[in-house]
């Protein structure tokens, strides 16, 4: 029995130690950088991030060793083609590297070449911590909603908590979609979520109080769609949209989500009432967001006048005709960024001010997000349309709101250079700021053009974005085989305070109508 | 009755007659089952593995074991892969059934004809595999094929073990362990096992013993219920104790009829210990058991889905998937019944790939119907052949879209995975292709799957540069007809597709436009394919074209017969019937008499 115990202990110790690797004594230095996934070369990372494990690409590579050099020491990791870093040692390394770089020297081995030493690369470590959690939706990459889960990740470890999975309430008669989760100012004590199809309604969690509402009023065009919590008050600005989805017959862009009609509303959570903000017939207003001081409501708006559909069908009873026209002219739909002043006492809004005239440059700007210091406007910019997550040409764009002119319009010189490190040739979209304004999270299809992954980019005090890193995974090959897209990432300072069952029970409750 | 009565009986060795009878039952029934599966339903078994949602990844494992019965489903999914070789899979399945029957026979100590009872669950399992029909394309249950067998096998194993134990304390221990682990591992089969074990114990005993037994069940089940209480992987509409029960419900319909094999399965497993007691007491009434088995066989036979179109469709789908075009067309040449729309469309794809659409596009039966099942199932091509049809006709984005849609709805199976891999290659999305390649590597029989350069070229020649934003709204055939009849291809061979679909629309202008393009590409001196000549005659566009005099004469004869019949006041339907034997495979007959059956 004792022998058995000793053997087990020894085996456990061996397993525990197996991650540390030995630097090869004989190798051939080469000038070619090894291809690694995720790409962390030259990235800027926060001091509190989980280990950035990675794997070396190449079928012939059977072994690799990475030596991490940090002030006062070095350590090696590597097994097979993967580099999996021991979390405690990683934390120590980062603490010592703050304000400096962690240098990685990679050795790869294949039967044909023996050991090769690749050029050393650095990872810049900054003292600005990243918000501890990021919440997201995990969705199939197209229009089906059979398997959607809502989760949040602890960025300091690899722990993921699924706080809702739509399969919980899935029933054979019909499924339901959950979308657009939104939190107030990076805190989960005020939360909202839409449920579509079966059990449809908008779930609002207002500091411990649950409610499920039908946000559609007789005079609004739809229920609530894209949400934005006011930074401090129990108010949510929403867009109301008539949305549909079509598909490209050829090319990398596979889908188009388009609106035939849209507008904005304000929901007052304390009084359970909805106040229409705007619904101009020739304007498609969508994607609201608040300035951090809560005094301005920013949003995207496109001017689109129906030429054929409304002539054929003046009463607009046949939505399909409008859909046809939008589809036929889909490249003409281009959004600009506007804002309206908000009066919190009257719950009223001022006249629209054009902030970013993207359409003048034949571009379309969506998803405005203002940095917490109120200075920077981050948008998703594409050639047309509103759903840039499907557009390979879509990039993040940064504009300095301090250059706003007398008439409100921003200087046309966009800080493309400053945001360039965050972009890639693939689609970048849906971005949000950390509470400090030092980090941006966004989704990008850069890995394979089909599945979105989360990227985090450092945004320094000079207003420059740094090379991003992909959300770390315990198994660096995880994303290779993962068949869900990450969607709607939002930073969180605290874990979500309710359980999946609590949310599910609320979804099951009857929907209440809001008051006008 | 003394508690150890059956033990005494067991010790009496089986007679040679009894052994012979049991052997006959085993060989006869299992042989019949193997023949029915491996020979009569070979295409079905192959399709079953092709639509079997199973992956050898950690993520899939985690996803499966998160809910009750997930382990059984995972293992069942793994076993289903063996249907890739139908005879291998059928042997494995029938082998499991043989083992179940043997274990049940031993555990229940059945004598004489009473042994027939152990084959009733087997017949139910057999019926469950052959009854599905078109449900195979919209079944949400992972591991449908082997899962129930594994569940019953586990129950039979524990029952056999239980029957070997003499002391109550050991039996209580088995009851406790089974109650604790069987629900997470097996789902509702765990509950079935608990009840079967209870019914297998001597029922007339003290209250104390019964309290202990119930305690050994209730305590672990409570722990299991608490374990799953807050789990987001649990479907709330499924009662925990019946988790994984086979429902045949989709948003459009529900079919309790197909649940019958499972009801019979559960019922027969529950009744078996009780009937076994009866059998030991009244050995001579064994003929009743035999009659019950015969009734079960008759019921199972009724559920067997024999629709010839269905089996032909499965055969054609596989041939199309593998690009064996002659084998797609072959069944249409010897067809005895009206084909389905999907079969007609698959034939068009095969002819298009062979460049024979212009000459033979109307040479096979084009009057397809919507398949009908004895149960009200809304059948959609979108869930079966559509991805393949779109792919081979140069619309990989649409094939990819449907694979994405269906792999979420019905699970990621080799069929969808292979198709997504091929679409990614055709679209030159090599990083995405490598993702699917790695997932294919986790499958036992698809790990060596590769797409040939020849296949990619065959698809790409139909991919046009014209990108449009459209939507098929779930109707592949209508969409293809509308879209492909507008296409402008780069070579005459491919342009035949556009001309053919323009002809299907009966649209003179569209035909004229696509034909002009065809002639431009083929050269004005090239021979015009037969059906195109027929259409030019019908639309009055033959001037200046080189029309075969025989076709022209035939058309004249057709018009004359048509006019004569018309003058005689015959109905359109009867004229169509009259002319069909001679002109049924011409475009003229299609144009004048074919009523487009509702597509799906």
Which parts of chain A are unreliable, with pLDDT below 50 for 5 consecutive residues or more?
14-18
The biggest chain-chain interface is: A-B, 48 and 48 residues
Largest sheet entry of chain A: 7 strands, mixed
Q: Nearest-angstrom radius of gyration of chain B?
A: 30 Å
CATH architecture of the largest domain in chain A: 6 Propeller
Task: Please report the first level of CATH classification, the CATH class of the largest domain in chain A.
Answer: Mainly Beta
The count of strands of chain A amounts to 35
What is the quaternary state of this protein?
Answer: heterodimer
Q: What helical percentage do the residues of chain B reach?
A: 55-70%
The CATH topology of the largest domain in chain A is what? Neuraminidase
**By helix and strand content of chain B, what is the structural category?**
mainly alpha
Number of H- or I-type helical stretches of chain B: 29
Rounded average pLDDT of chain A:
92
* Secondary structure: helix percent of chain A: 10-25%
Radius of gyration of chain A: 25 Å
Give the strand content of chain A.
35-45%
How would you sum up this structure, described in words?
The complex is a heterodimer of chains A (516) and B (600). With 516 residues, chain A is mainly beta. Helices cover 11% and strands 42% of the residues of chain A. Chain A has seven helices and 35 strands. In chain A, the strands form eight sheets. In chain A, strands 1, 3, 5, 6, 8, 9 and 10 form a seven-stranded mixed sheet that branches. A five-stranded mixed sheet of chain A has the order 14-15-16-17-35, with helices on one face. In chain A, strands 22, 23, 24, 25 and 26 form a five-stranded antiparallel sheet that branches. The longest helix of chain A has 16 residues, at 2-17. In chain B, strands 1-2 form a two-stranded antiparallel sheet. Chain B is built from 29 helices and three strands. Among the domains of chain B are: 5-230 and 237-303, no CATH class; 507-600, no CATH class. Chain B is an all-alpha fold and 600 residues long. The radius of gyration of chain B is 30 Å and the shape is elongated. Classes of the chains: A mainly beta (516), B mainly alpha (600). At the A-B interface, strand 13, strand 19, helix 6 and helix 7 of A face strand 1, helix 19, helix 21 and strand 3 of B. Strand 19 (235-248) of chain A pairs antiparallel with strand 3 (469-470) of chain B, so a sheet runs across the interface.
């Amino acid at each position: 029995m004792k022998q058995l115990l000793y053997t087990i202990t020894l085996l456990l110790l061996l397993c525990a130690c197996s991650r540390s690797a030995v630097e090869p004594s004989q190798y051939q230095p080469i000038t070619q950088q090894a291809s690694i996934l995720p790409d962390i070369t030259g990235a800027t990372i926060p001091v509190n991030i989980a280990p950035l494990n990675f794997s070396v690409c190449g079928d012939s590579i059977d072994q690799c060793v990475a030596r991490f050099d940090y002030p006062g020491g070095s350590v090696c990791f590597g097994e097979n083609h993967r580099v999996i870093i021991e979390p405690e040692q990683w934390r120590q390394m980062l603490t010592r590297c703050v304000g400096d770089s962690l240098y990685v020297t990679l050795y790869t081995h294949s039967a044909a070449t023996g050991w090769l030493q690749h050029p050393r690369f650095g990872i810049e470590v900054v003292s600005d911590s990243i918000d501890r959690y990021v919440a997201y939706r995990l969705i199939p990459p197209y229009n089906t909603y059979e398997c959607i889960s809502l989760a949040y990740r602890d960025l300091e470890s690899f722990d993921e908590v699924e706080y809702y999975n739509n399969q919980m309430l899935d029933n054979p008669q019909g499924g339901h979609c959950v979308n657009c989760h939104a939190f107030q100012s990076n805190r989960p004590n005020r939360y909202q979520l839409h449920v579509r199809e079966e059990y449809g309604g908008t779930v609002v969690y207002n500091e411990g109080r649950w409610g499920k509402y039908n946000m559609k009023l007789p005079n609004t065009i739809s229920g609530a769609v894209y949400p934005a919590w006011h930074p401090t008050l129990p108010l949510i600005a929403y867009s109301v949209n008539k949305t549909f989805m079509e598909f490209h017959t050829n090319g990398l862009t596979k889908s188009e989500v388009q609106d035939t009609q849209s507008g904005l509303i304000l929901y007052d959570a304390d009084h359970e009432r909805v106040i229409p903000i705007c619904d101009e017939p020739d304007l498609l207003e969508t994607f609201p967001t608040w300035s951090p001081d809560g005094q301005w409501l920013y949003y995207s708006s496109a001017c689109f006048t129906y030429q054929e559909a409304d002539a054929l069908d003046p009463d607009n009873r046949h939505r399909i005709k409008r859909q046809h026209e939008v589809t036929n002219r889909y490249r003409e739909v281009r959004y600009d960024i506007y804002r309206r002043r908000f009066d919190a006492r009257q719950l009223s809004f001022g006249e629209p001010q054009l902030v970013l005239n993207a359409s003048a440059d034949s571009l379309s700007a969506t998803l405005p997000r203002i940095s917490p210091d109120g200075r920077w406007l981050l948008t998703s910019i594409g050639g047309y349309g509103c759903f840039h997550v499907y557009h390979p040409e879509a990039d993040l764009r940064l504009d300095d709101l301090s250059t706003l002119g007398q008439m409100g319009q921003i200087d046309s010189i966009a800080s493309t250079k400053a945001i360039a490190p965050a972009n890639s040739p693939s689609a970048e979209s849906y971005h949000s700021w950390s509470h400090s304004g030092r980090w941006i999270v966004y989704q990008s299809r850069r890995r394979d053009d089909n599945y979105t992954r989360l990227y985090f980019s450092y945004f320094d005090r000079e207003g420059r974005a740094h090379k991003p890193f992909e959300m770390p995974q315990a198994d660096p090959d995880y994303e290779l085989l993962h068949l869900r897209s990450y969607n709607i990432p939002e930073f969180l300072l605290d874990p979500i305070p309710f359980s999946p069952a609590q949310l599910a029970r609320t979804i099951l409750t009857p929907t209440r109508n809001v008051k006008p | 009755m003394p508690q150890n009565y059956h033990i005494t009986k067991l010790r009496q060795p089986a007679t040679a007659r009894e052994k012979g009878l049991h052997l006959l039952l085993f060989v006869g029934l299992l042989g019949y089952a193997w023949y029915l599966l491996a020979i009569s339903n070979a295409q079905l078994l192959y399709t079953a593995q092709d639509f079997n949602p199973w992956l050898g990844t950690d993520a899939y494992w985690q996803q499966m074991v998160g809910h009750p019965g997930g382990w059984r489903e995972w293992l069942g999914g793994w076993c289903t892969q063996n249907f890739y070789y139908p005879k291998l899979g059928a042997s494995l399945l029938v082998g499991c059934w043989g083992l179940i029957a043997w274990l049940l026979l031993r555990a229940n100590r059945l004598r004489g004809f009473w042994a027939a009872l152990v084959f009733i669950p087997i017949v139910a399992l057999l019926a469950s595999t052959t009854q599905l029909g078109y449900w195979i394309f919209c079944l949400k249950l992972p591991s449908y094929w082997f899962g129930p067998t594994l569940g019953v096998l586990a129950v039979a194993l524990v029952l056999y073990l239980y029957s070997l134990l003499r002391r109550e304390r050991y039996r209580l221990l088995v009851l406790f362990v089974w109650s604790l682990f069987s629900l997470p591992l097996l789902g509702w089969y765990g509950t079935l096992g608990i009840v079967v074990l209870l019914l297998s114990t001597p029922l007339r005993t003290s209250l104390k013993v019964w309290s202990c037994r119930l305690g050994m069940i209730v305590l672990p089940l409570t722990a299991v219920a608490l374990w799953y209480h807050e789990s987001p992987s649990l479907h709330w509409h499924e009662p925990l104790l019946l988790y994984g029960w086979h429902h045949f419900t989709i948003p459009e319909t529900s079919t309790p009829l197909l649940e019958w094999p499972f009801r019979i399965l559960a019922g027969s497993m529950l009744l078996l210990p009780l009937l076994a007691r009866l059998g030991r007491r009244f050995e001579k009434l064994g003929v009743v058991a035999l009659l019950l088995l015969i009734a079960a066989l008759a019921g199972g036979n009724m559920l067997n889905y024999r629709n010839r179109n269905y089996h032909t469709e499965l055969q054609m789908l596989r041939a199309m998937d593998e690009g064996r075009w002659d084998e797609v067309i072959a069944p249409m040449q010897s067809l005895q019944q009206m084909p389905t729309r999907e079969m007609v469309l698959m034939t068009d794809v095969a002819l298009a790939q062979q460049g024979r659409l212009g000459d033979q596009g109307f040479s096979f039966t084009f009057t397809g119907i919507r398949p009908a099942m004895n149960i009200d199932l809304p059948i959609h091509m979108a869930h079966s052949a559509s991805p393949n049809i779109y792919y081979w006709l140069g619309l990989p984005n649409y094939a990819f879209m449907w694979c994405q849609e269906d792999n979420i709805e019905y699970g990621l199976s080799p069929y969808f995975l292979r198709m997504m891999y091929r679409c990614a290659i055709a679209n030159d999305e090599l990083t995405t292709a490598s993702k699917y390649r790695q997932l294919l590597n986790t499958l036992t029989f698809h790990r060596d799957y590769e797409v040939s350069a020849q296949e990619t070229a065959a698809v790409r020649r139909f991919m046009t540069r014209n990108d449009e934003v459209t939507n098929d709204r779930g109707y592949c055939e209508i969409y293809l007809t509308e879209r492909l009849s507008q296409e402008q291809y780069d070579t005459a061979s491919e342009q035949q597709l556009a001309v053919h679909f323009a002809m299907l629309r009966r649209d003179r202008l569209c035909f004229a436009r696509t034909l002009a393009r065809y002639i431009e590409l083929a050269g004005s001196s090239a021979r015009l394919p037969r059906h195109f000549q027929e259409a030019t005659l019908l639309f009055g566009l033959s001037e200046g074209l080189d029309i075969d005099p025989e076709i022209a004469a035939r058309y004249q004869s057709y018009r004359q017969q048509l006019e004569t019949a018309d003058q005689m006041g015959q109905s359109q339907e009867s004229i169509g019937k009259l002319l069909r034997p001679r002109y049924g495979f011409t475009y003229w007959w299609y144009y004048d008499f074919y009523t487009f059956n509702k597509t799906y």
